[in-house]
Write a structure and sequence with these properties.
Largest sheet: 7 strands, mixed
InterPro entries: ArgJ-like_dom_sf (IPR016117), Peptidase_S58_DmpA (IPR005321), TAT_signal (IPR006311)
Order of helices and strands: HEEEHEEHEHEEEEHEHEEHEEH
CATH superfamily: L-amino peptidase D-ALA esterase/amidase
Protein name: S58 family peptidase
Structural class: alpha+beta
GO molecular function, one term: aminopeptidase activity
CATH class: Alpha Beta
Distance between the termini: 59 Å
Number of helices: 8
Mean pLDDT: 90
CATH topology: L-amino peptidase D-ALA esterase/amidase
Oligomer: single chain
Pfam families: Peptidase_S58
Helix content: 10-25%
Family: Belongs to the peptidase S58 family.
Shape: globular
């Protein structure tokens, strides 16, 4: 259909052009119209010049540095404005951690630790009973935990036809944190297909961080939070093994935040989200290729809580602080009678403890550093940590960032 022109209507572009010509004719300077500014670049905490701990990160400084571990995300960011339950706005997703190519048939040792239990991590009774992980690990928001479990089990039933026949039906490992400050939690908005997409997207290499996957709608120390990851390599004398951590952050109060020991949260008081439907939870998943027993992995899971504490967290009453650690260095073939496997020497485990603490601390800070400002339901806004403020704050407390 042809669009008719209106001789009485002058476009804004024509007015601007005419104004510019008039100004030039009058010998006046012209102030150009300002273009929209791109959002400031986000960088990981180490790339900002803040090194956490003393051990060396892996190649990607991510949980995927552990051989065989892959991570995939599906992110849903749709709509804006007032909350319409069941329709949006939507700020959710799912993150999957694949511990190997076939964890169902080749189970691996695992252990979990509950620092504060106001949250859910499904399927852990199996880990408690025999110390083995037999499904991938999924992270999402609270209201979608059932949807993700259903999608995960549907994928496993398709891939392993023996389930329910000659093999037991597993309970997938699914963890959650609450996203209702930004997200239409009542609407859920995830499907079986989203879970399958996350599995298909799982890759080794660098991991996307910030407001992605299960971390899409999350806050951290009252800034925007989400997914973060980091890793550490053990010394050659201890086998060159790797420990990696991935977190889904949704915890803490602003004044608690510490970055490498500096009380950054006390220095940045603007941009606070209103006191409403905020939450205080975190999911922490650790991995290593060191051949460890479930008891040893349980010790590492507890040490990840110390890394959380280094960032200022106190594990509040309403918090779901749930931690799980697994090892790809031992594989228990389903149906095998016995296996001859190496076992980590406890005499060297203190360095592994240190690695777990450092990687957890840095993973949390990476989630903060990489997350961008996000607006959700009713215009609720979670502001990104202002990275440009960090050099002055660190310098104020005698911790200048090299070269800044």
């Amino acid at each position: 259909m042809a669009v008719k022109s209106d001789p009485g209507r002058v476009s804004r572009r024509a007015l601007l052009a005419g104004g510019a010509l008039a100004a030039i004719s009058a010998g006046c300077s012209v102030v150009p119209v300002e273009s929209p500014r791109a959002p400031p670049a986000r960088r990981r905490i180490r790339d900002l010049g803040i090194g956490i701990g003393s051990l060396t990160p892996g190649r990607w400084n991510a949980i995927t540095d552990v051989p065989g571990v892959r991570v995939g995300h599906v992110t849903r960011i749709e709509g804006e404005g007032p909350l319409v339950p069941g329709r949006g706005p939507i700020r959710t997703g799912v993150t999957v951690i694949l511990p190997g190519d076939d964890v169902w048939r080749d189970n691996i040792p695992a252990a979990r630790f509950t620092l504060n239990g106001n949250g859910e991590l499904t399927g852990v009774s199996t880990i408690d009973r025999h110390g083995l992980l037999e499904t991938p690990i999924f992270l999402t928001d609270t209201s979608n935990i059932g949807r993700v479990m259903d999608g995960a089990l549907a994928w496993m039933l398709d891939r392993y036809p023996e389930i329910g026949d000659s093999a037991p039906v597993p309970t997938p490992i699914v963890g959650e944190t609450w996203a209702a400050f930004l997200h239409d939690a009542e609407g859920r908005h995830l499907t079986e297909e989203h879970v399958r997409e996350a599995i298909s997207a799982a890759r080794s290499g660098p991991v996307e961080e910030g407001a992605v996957g299960g971390g899409t709608g999350m806050l951290c120390y009252e800034f925007k939070g989400g997914i973060g990851t980091a890793s550490r390599r053990l010394p050659a004398a201890m086998g060159n093994y790797t420990l990696g951590v991935l977190v889904q952050t949704n915890h803490g109060r602003r004044a608690q935040l510490r970055i490498d020991g500096v009380p950054v949260g006390r220095e940045i008081t603007e941009g606070m989200p209103y006191e409403g439907r905020k939450s205080k939870s975190i999911l922490i998943i650790g991995a290593t290729d060191a051949p460890m027993t479930p008891v040893q992995l349980g010790r590492l899971a507890k040490r990840m809580a110390l890394g959380l504490a280094r960032t200022g967290a106190v594990s509040m009453h309403g918090s779901g602080d749930l931690l799980l650690f697994f090892s790809t260095g031992v594989r228990v073939r389903r149906g095998a009678v016995s296996m001859d496997v190496p076992v980590w020497n406890d005499e060297h485990i203190s360095v592994a403890h240190e690695a777990a603490v450092e990687a957890t601390e840095e993973a949390i800070l990476n989630a903060l550093a990489m997350a961008r400002t996000m607006t959700g339901i009713h215009g609720n806004t979670a502001h990104a940590l202002p990275l440009d403020r960090l050099p002055d704050i660190m310098r104020k407390y005698g911790r200048p960032i090299p070269g800044r």
